């Protein structure tokens, strides 16, 4: 489950400039979802964005998370909260693996 999702998410994150900000409609299109799907996840605290100038804007990291949420909800028929918890765990494991690789590189492995 996570291997395929992580590799495609990592590839997407590399393609997107972290400084780029997508609008709510652009984020919805990137996830193949409707804009109300995004606003529901914003209201639930599952996605985070910046509300400026009368609109929402999202970073590349949020695009990856939103795509992961959409995938988990669709593939496993997960409710949004469960998908959010699962996404949190996937992100935490990825961070821990990255830190482990950094430590191993420092030790010369």
| Strand ordering within the main sheet | 1-3-2
Unreliable parts: 1-5
State the helical fraction.
55-70%
Helical element count?
5
Order of helices and strands: HEHHEEHH
CATH class equals: Mainly Alpha
| Count of all domains | 1
* Beta-strand segment tally: 3
Q: Roughly what is the average pLDDT, rounded to an integer?
A: 88
Q: Can you summarize the main beta sheet?
A: 3 strands, antiparallel
Helix vs. strand class = mainly alpha
Q: How much is the radius of gyration in Å? A: 15 Å
> What is the CATH architecture descriptor?
Orthogonal Bundle
The CATH topology annotation reads as: Multidrug-efflux Transporter Regulator, Chain: A, Domain 2
Distance between the termini: 28 Å
Gross morphology: globular
Strand content: 5-15%
Organism: Paenacidovorax caeni
Protein name: Chaperone modulatory protein CbpM
Pfam families: MerR_2 (PF13591)
């Amino acid at each position: 489950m996570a291997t395929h999702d992580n590799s495609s998410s990592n590839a997407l994150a590399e393609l997107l400039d972290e400084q780029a900000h997508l609008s709510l409609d652009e984020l919805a299109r990137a996830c193949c979802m409707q804009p109300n799907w995004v606003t529901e996840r914003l209201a639930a605290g599952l996605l985070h964005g910046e509300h400026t100038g009368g609109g929402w804007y999202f970073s590349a990291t949020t695009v990856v998370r939103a795509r992961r949420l959409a995938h988990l909800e669709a593939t496993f028929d997960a409710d949004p909260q469960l998908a959010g918890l699962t996404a949190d765990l996937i992100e935490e494991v990825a961070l821990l693996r990255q830190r482990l690789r950094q430590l191993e590189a420092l030790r010369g492995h």
